[in-house]
Amino acid sequence: MPSVIAPLSSLPQFDPRRVPVLGVDAHLPRVPAAAQTAQALRLRFASAPAWVPEVVYERAFTERPLRHAAVLIPIVMRERATVLLTERTVHLSTHSGQVAFPGGSADPEDANPAATALREAWEEVGLEGRYVEVLGELATYRTGTGFSITPVVALVEPDCTLNPNAYEVADVFEVPLDYLLDPSHHRRHAFEWEGVTREWFSMPYEDAAGKTHFIWGATAGMLRNFYRFMLA
Known about the structure:
With 232 residues, this protein is α+β, with helices and mostly antiparallel strands. The protein has helices at 38-46, 113-125, 177-180, 217-231; strands at 23-24, 67-76, 82-88, 99-100, 103-105, 132-137, 141-142, 147-156, 169-176, 187-193, 196-202, 205-206, 212-213. The chain is globular, with a radius of gyration of 17 Å.
């Protein structure tokens, strides 16, 4: 039988915050501010360029069939646009305590990934569809936990009201879009366990209250792909 590869989060005393930084991509160009307006984003997705995602899968540690899922990348169109993110509660069975986009597994009645992402955003944070303008999709991202995730990018009206599900969501916060699309904030990590090397990005963000939100793993990987899409 193939050996079982444990998920990083289950390894003894593993803390992604303590893994050394191998490099920071400050040498790469930032996405121009003019490309981050609502109209520019609409045009980008309406005439999407040919591009190649940088991160498409994680090293699998399960042999179960891939499960389809979708997440919403909600860009809140404030004067300085932000991306809405969540911190998952610690008791959840997968990715507990981690920073994530609203999203989850597809249901049979979901017409498409956008329908899944919108439904999950409503269930997790109470974001109503009437506040959301879906722009399009990025390349699917396959996680080591057996999910094939479609990121759905959308604009969100800044006056939206949220009602987070306390069972699933410990915190809801926003990170400036220009911060996430600046590769000087993209840090590279690698960790070896029993001869298997895992690599990932992190994008730590300190908010106005002084709290550091550690964005890493699949969430950071999808944001890195969004950066590549915007510069293609």
